[in-house]
Amino acid sequence: MAEILTREAAWSLLTEFNKEPFHLKHALTVEGVMRYFARELGYDEEEEFWGIVGLLHDLDFEQFPEQHCIKEQAIMRERGIDENIIHATASHGYELTVDIKPEHEMEKVLYAVDELTGLIGAVALMRPSKSVSDLELKSVKKKYKNLNFAAGCSREVIERGTAMLGWELDALIEKTILAMRSCEV
Fold this sequence. Notes:
It is a single chain. The protein has helices at 7-17, 21-40, 47-56, 71-78, 83-90, 105-125, 137-145, 155-165, 169-183. It has one domain. Helices cover 61% and strands 0% of the residues. Helix 1 (7-17) runs parallel beside helix 3 (47-56), helix 2 runs antiparallel to helix 3 (47-56) and helix 2 crosses helix 6. The chain has nine helices and no strands.
């Protein structure tokens, strides 16, 4: 029987496999962004689930970057974690490391915002405030077009995720900025 994963248990699992402050901060950011989108899109009752998926999405990346989205499935299955969490976290590696397609709206949001939160975070760090609190769409768009800026944040993945959601890129960026403001530490 699959375990109902609490937020505390998810954090414990994450920190068992991740020690780098950068990776932990990214996990917390994506968790907060996913919680925001759960509320924004009318999935209030699933907010905890969305958050846990966001928190655990890169569970294996720090220790197993070459097996990203693959190794985490085995780790979670060994722990008896619900297949819905396993599918959701692994699906953000679709067409990159796995062939698990994002199906639920939540999985599509994760796919689209994972890379985008990194890019937005990088833009925010360039500002005097070092914050998303005063960040505007035009600043992100300017840096987005510069492929050398935050080069590790795949614009192709962001655009594919945006298309999966059926949204406009500007709308996704604006909503993700607002989501990041809601959980900025």
